[in-house]
Amino acid sequence: RRAPSGETVRVRFKLYSSGVAQLIEVERGSGARDINEAGIQSIIHAHPFPPLPADMSGELVDVHVRMRTGVKVGPGDVETTIEKRPVKAQPAPKSQSQ
User: Fold this and answer.
1) Which residue, 91, 24, 86, is CA-closest to 56?
2) Which residues contact 8 (CB under 8 A, 6 or more apart)?
3) How far apart, in Å, do the first and last CA atoms of the chain sit?
4) Cis ω on the peptide bond leading into residue 93 (within 30° of 0)?
5) Helix, strand or coil, per DSSP, at residue 42
6) Within a 10 A sphere around the Cβ of 61, how many other Cβ atoms?
7) 53 contact partners, CB below 8 Å, separation of at least 6
């Protein structure tokens, strides 16, 4: 393997108030498939996340995570972007009577 080069991948996903992450995808790739896949796998392995605070119950949060390889984390390397959206209520399944 080659030495770390400081490649960056940006991953986004939907986070529900229960801490469930869904629709995990690469938002901006690093140019290296294995690093992009590692970014997705890091979210999958961290799942489930702690529930969101009570005042955000029923919310859906878009989470964007930037991950870098081969470099020491500095204060400017942490980026948090949160877009809150209310979760749309799912209609109750209709019962089928025969």
Assistant:
1) 86
2) 28, 30, 66, 67, 68, 69
3) 64
4) no
5) helix
6) 19
7) none
Q: What is the DSSP letter of 20?
A: -
Tokens representing residue 89 in the block: 């209520």
Q: Specify the residue for token string 């290296």.
A: 32
DSSP string across 43-94: HHHHPSPPPPPGGGTTEEEEEEEEEESSS---GGG---EEEEEEPPPPPPPP
Give CA–CA dist 42/11, Å, rounded: 10
Convert the pLDDT of each residue in 5-61 to its tens digit.
Answer: 578 899 999 998 888 999 999 999 988 899 999 999 999 999 888 988 888 767 788
**What's the rounded Cα separation, in Å, for the pair 47 and 44?**
5
